[in-house]
Design goal:
This protein is mostly helical. The chain contains 47 helices and no strands. The chain is elongated, with a radius of gyration of 42 Å. This is Nucleolar 27S pre-rRNA processing Urb2/Npa2 C-terminal domain-containing protein. InterPro entries: Ribosome_Biogenesis_Reg (IPR052609).
């Protein structure tokens, strides 16, 4: 910084001010001349009158010579010389060129320009003299220099440039930096404006012109370059740190830095640093250059799309690349041998071998930066690795092309930054733009050398993480520093993944590389366990809540990068990884942070990555069932016995509370995660389908056993050496929620995604039957014809009878029962549908046996079989595993009366599942009823056509009565089931009215902003339940409308049609149609849907109008609604 302030006047009062006041930004003041003593003013006027040839209109042949003589005169004050030269330049530029040429001058203009150039540089380049320091910040000196540069280009005059001009560049950068850093100036942008600050524009022009000459600044003094480049880099970083890029200050700083860095990069390319120069470069420039490699600069590039910012980022990379990784240095970096010490078996002499060369100074400097807690500097470490790999690729490419030793030089300014990296990536954004080289350009030796370099960069960061863990993340550890360290790790890992350095098939390190990756992965996972166990007593609670999502996000990103590099880093400990993810999700139940979405997004991305990875390895079943085991481990009653399954038990706390299941359910509520499982299961080899069901059967058995142990502990029974805590009752309730909300979702996605083919159906049938047998004891208890059937269910689950539960626990116990129902019913629904697919694809003989065992009278039987049949008794919904099957309607009524009477807030998933079961039963009843009606019509026609005797006629009449009676029974059950399904229309109507009465906005706006349903069942709540019921009714309207003429249902169908028309009207407006843009998943279904969109889609479906009577009702309701509206 310089203690100077130059104030300038227009004419003869310009002088250099040597004030020692506080440093401020230097201005050229045109209207505020310095006050001088009368004697001084008199002397200046007297001198100007006595000196010959100073008036440009007089004595033209002597003007140039007299100026030179005046500037050479040692008796004339420096201030007066500067005024003379500046006035001369000013007059020359304002002078209108006439016919008089330069030949009339005693000294031609070319010689004058050479003299003025040397003289003006002498003012700018001598830092020893105080007046010359002031000259570096004097507008007039730079203006004279600019005149010489421009005129020399016009006249093709060759100029010499002093190497010490770099000092002037450094002084200007330091002056602007002192201004930007001045906290007393609240609005720097308003000050840095107007023509008073022409100095910096002139300096920028001068530097740009100077380096544009062919020879430029031929300065081979690296030390001088380094000392003056430092302030330029600090200025640029300050501009980005204070977000001043968009203003005049930022524009100048970026342009100025680009103008200076470009020749510096060329200098380093032509004159590579030697041993001592390399150390100076590392000591003085590495830190500021790495700061500029931070994501902040590249985010500015992406946001502003600024050509200058792009150019600056390229130049920063070029300076680092040429300064550190010039071809003369590259061999030293290729022989680091840093990974050998991680080999499984290594000789003692090799383990202690460390190459000590000047190249090590780079890593020593990086380590010292970490020790000084300058963690922000390390955020650009990934780009540094990227530059090193790029240099290796270029050198190999040049060698292959026969141009070894040549460099391609500084890249074009139009570079679109396709090779730049970004580490702030989600799963979907983790793909980094490919560079111009493929991974095939590496030899095995090159991969080993690159990995050694990677080890040297990552090891200090891992040691830093170990230090954090040893301190137990106590209060003295700054979580901001921890976050910076994790970001640096991810920056390096992202670059390593992008460059595709590691290939296990080409690893020649005898396992050392893989061992290092495992060590690094274990460090990250262990750190995650330590962070999860951190309590408010370890560190400030507010700070912890604020930083926890950011730290956790970086940890999961790191794990994802390790999986991208080599999946075997996990080893056989996949369950620990799932448990870590679930534990962090469970922690959300007590962590109230606005940035929770950062954590959930990172976990969901990692979950999808794991499923896709093991799907590619043909081991998707392993990934899914280890996830199920991790879910059960969240509530483990013999913790000591389960510690061998996961490293997390030793460090993580118990996170379970009432909201645990909901938090963990976020993973299974994600459509992207379920879609990953769906695709993975859908495309497994058909020969593995039966094995998958067998593994599912074993896992369901484990889940049932897990529930039985939990309920036994709750009751106080001793089972082995179980750990009994004070929260066993709470633990059992959470177990029930995890069973119904999480495990059932995994099982259903698996079963619903499985493809049944003619090739695997023969093996799938027995496997599915065995799976259903695991839930037989629980389902069969529902067949008991008394109100104690629920008690029987509890006894089978190993739980206390509800009559033995205290009054304060009955509500929680009821909720637990509902989640158990959700689990059982969903498993039965999916197995039932899958088994019917098996029946339809097996040979006729086998399919009939399977159909008979299931109680399915349609799938395997032909029309002839039906005509020859004499017993048309329906076996019931649960006839597959219960004989006789309990009426589904009775079960629905009993559950509704017991659990849905007072509050439906906690019953939403079960209500929706009962609707699914009711509609499935309606489909069966409709098919059965239609078949019987066909037989009845056939008999009546036969009686009319043929003449039967009395005995045959009596037989047919009995058959008709039997058919009519059976049809009547089926129709009565169907009407009651349809009544149950339509009975929740009042809930939908209330939801619609609440939307309309919410505020004063338009109906279209309310429809567009209304609640949406994401098609999740177990995450369903009071807001999404009406949408889900409306959706399932509209999807099955072709079945329901068959019973629209029933007297019991006419009023409900009238309500349905009214709601249908009312909720579809907002969708007809153009503004609504323009505003609605569905997000579609890969299967073509919208990811979320509203009540109004469902109605609109149904009205556009021709199926709605296929039933004649129903279509008439629609027209009638439409007319009534229109009349009311008018």
């Amino acid at each position: 910084m310089f203690d100077s302030s130059v104030k300038l006047s227009k004419k003869d009062k310009r002088k250099l001010n040597s004030s020692q006041d506080k440093p401020i930004l230097t201005k050229r003041r045109r209207n505020d001349p310095l006050k001088k003593e009368p004697k001084e003013v008199e002397e200046v006027k007297s001198w100007s009158l006595t000196e010959p040839g100073l008036n440009p209109s007089e004595e033209r042949p002597w003007r140039n010579l007299q100026l030179i003589l005046s500037l050479q005169n040692k008796q004339i004050d420096l201030q007066k010389k500067v005024e003379l030269a500046f006035d001369f330049v000013d007059s020359i530029e304002k002078e209108v060129r006439n016919d008089v040429g330069d030949d009339d001058e005693t000294v031609n203009i070319s010689r004058l320009i050479v003299f003025l150039n040397d003289w003006s540089q002498s003012l700018l380049v001598s830092p020893e003299k105080k007046d010359n320091v002031e000259a570096c910040l004097d507008f007039r000196c730079w203006r004279i220099f600019e005149f010489c540069l421009k005129e020399s280009l016009k006249l093709h005059v060759s100029l010499n440039f002093s190497r010490n001009l770099l000092r002037a560049i450094g002084y200007v950068a330091s002056n602007v930096l002192s201004f930007v850093s001045d906290p007393s100036l609240s609005s720097k942008e308003s000050v840095f404006d107007g023509e008073e600050f022409e100095l910096y524009g002139v300096v920028l022009d001068c530097v740009s012109l100077m380096f544009s000459f062919q020879n430029g600044l031929s300065n081979e003094n690296l030390e001088l370059w380094i000392s003056n480049i430092g302030p330029v880099l600090k200025l640029v970083h300050k501009i980005y740190a204070q977000n001043l890029v968009g203003g005049n200050i930022g524009a100048f700083a970026i342009q100025f830095s680009c103008v200076v860095l470009e020749p510096f990069a060329k200098f380093l390319r032509i004159h590579p640093t030697r041993k001592n120069g390399f150390r100076d470069f590392v000591d003085k420039l590495l830190e500021p250059l790495l700061l500029l490699l931070d994501d902040g600069l590249y985010s500015q590039v992406n946001e502003n799309n600024s050509v200058l910012t792009k150019k600056l980022s390229v130049l920063v990379e070029d300076v680092l690349s040429h300064g550190l990784f010039h071809p003369v240095h590259i061999d030293g970096f290729l022989g680091l041998r840093g990974v050998e010490k991680y080999a499984p078996s290594i000789e003692a002499k090799d383990s202690n071998l460390v190459i000590k060369s000047y190249h090590r100074h780079l890593f020593d400097k990086l380590e010292s930066i970490i020790k000084l807690k300058k963690n922000m500097v390390w955020s650009g470490i990934g780009q540094l690795f990227h530059l090193f790999v790029g240099r290796i690729k270029k050198q190999k490419g040049a060698s292959d092309a026969g141009t070894s030793g040549k460099d391609r030089g500084t890249r074009r300014l139009e570079d679109d930054l396709s090779g730049h990296l970004s580490t702030d990536l989600s799963r979907s954004g983790r793909a980094i733009p490919d560079n111009n080289y493929s991974s095939g350009t590496y030899s095995a030796e090159s991969r080993k050398s690159l990995f050694d370099f990677f080890v040297q960069l990552l090891e200090p960061l891992l040691l830093e993480m170990d230090g954090y863990m040893q301190s137990n993340l106590a209060a003295r550890v700054s979580l901001v520093d921890v976050h910076c360290t994790l970001k640096s790790v991810n920056s390096l890992l992202a670059s390593f993944v992008h460059e595709k350095v590691y290939a296990r098939t080409e690893d020649i390190s005898e396992g050392a590389c893989l061992n290092f990756l495992k060590k690094a992965y274990n460090t990250v996972v262990s750190f995650a366990a330590k962070l999860l166990g951190m309590s408010d007593s370890d560190i400030d609670g507010k700070t912890r809540k604020e930083m926890f999502p950011f730290l956790a996000k970086e940890l999961f990103l790191a794990v994802g990068y390790f999986l991208d590099i080599e999946y075997d880093v996990i080893g056989s400990d996949l369950i620990s990884l799932w448990f870590m993810m679930l534990s962090y999700l469970a922690s959300l139940s007590y962590l109230d942070s606005p940035d929770q979405c950062l954590l959930t997004s990172a976990i969901l991305d990692l979950g999808c990555q794991l499923v896709n990875l093991y799907s590619a390895l043909r081991q998707v079943n392993y990934s899914i069932f280890t996830l199920c085991k991790a879910v059960r481990l969240l509530i483990s009653h013999h913790r000591e016995g389960e510690m061998s399954c996961t490293r997390f038990f030793s460090d993580s706390a118990s996170f379970y509370n009432e909201a645990t299941a909901a938090s963990v359910g976020i993973l299974l509520g994600s459509q992207e995660f379920k879609l990953s499982i769906h695709h993975a299961i859908k495309f497994i080899p058909e020969g593995q389908a039966s094995e998958l069901i067998q593994q599912l059967t074993a896992d369901v058995t484990e889940s049932m056993k897990w529930m039985k142990i939990g309920s036994s502990v709750t009751e106080g029974k001793e089972i082995g050496s179980l750990h009994v805590s004070d929260h066993d009752m709470l633990s059992f309730h959470i177990q029930a929620k995890l069973l119904g909300r999480v495990l059932s979702e995994i099982y259903m996605v698996l079963l619903d995604s499985l493809s049944v083919t003619a090739g695997n159906c023969s093996l799938l049938g027995p496997s599915i039957k065995e799976l259903v047998s695991t839930i037989y004891p629980c389902i069969s208890s529902l067949g008991e014809q008394n109100l104690d059937g629920i008690d029987t269910l509890f006894s089978v689950m190993g739980s206390t009878s509800k009559n033995m539960v205290g009054e304060n626990e009955k509500e929680s116990q009821g909720i637990s029962i509902q989640w158990i129902f959700v689990f059982l019913f969903r498993l039965y629904i999916s197995c039932r549908s899958l088994y019917r697919q098996v029946i339809s694809l097996t040979p006729p003989g086998t399919s009939r046996k399977l159909s008979l065992a299931m109680g399915d009278a349609f799938t395997a039987y032909t029309g002839r079989d039906w005509m020859e049949k004499s017993d048309w008794t329906d076996d019931g919904y649960f006839s597959w595993i219960i004989n006789p099957s309990p009426p589904l309607l009775d079960l629905i009524h009993h559950i509704s009366d017991t659990y849905f009477k007072d509050n439906i807030e906690d019953c939403c998933p079960l209500i929706y599942i009962l609707h699914i079961m009711a509609l499935q039963r309606l489909v069966d009843l409709s098919r059965h009823r239609s078949s019987l009606e066909y037989l009845l019509q056939r008999n009546e026609k036969l009686v009319q056509i043929k003449k039967f005797d009395d005995a045959d006629l009596s037989l047919y009449n009995k058959k008709d009565k039997k058919l009519k009676k059976r049809i009547s029974i089926l129709e009565q059950e169907a009407v009651e089931l349809a009544g149950f399904v339509l009975g929740y229309l009042s809930l939908i109507a209330d939801n619609y009215l609440s939307i309309l009465s919410s505020d004063d906005t338009s109906c279209e706006t309310k429809a567009h902003e209304s609640d949406k349903w994401d098609f999740g069942i177990c995450s369903m709540n009071k807001k999404s339940l009406p949408i889900a019921i409306w959706w399932i009714i509209c999807q099955n309207i072709d079945i329901l409308c068959i019973y629209s003429s029933s007297k019991k249902l006419k009023k409900k169908f009238k309500t349905f049609l009214t709601l249908l028309i009312q909720t579809s009207l907002p969708c007809l407006s153009k503004c609504f149609q323009q505003g609605v843009k569905h997000k579609i998943d890969e299967d073509g279904r919208p990811k979320k849907i509203t009540l109004f969109q469902i109605s609109q889609n149904l009205l556009q479906d021709s199926t709605l109008y296929d039933h004649k009577e129903f279509a008439i009702e629609i027209l009638s309701c439409t007319g009534e609604f229109s009349a009311v509206a008018v």
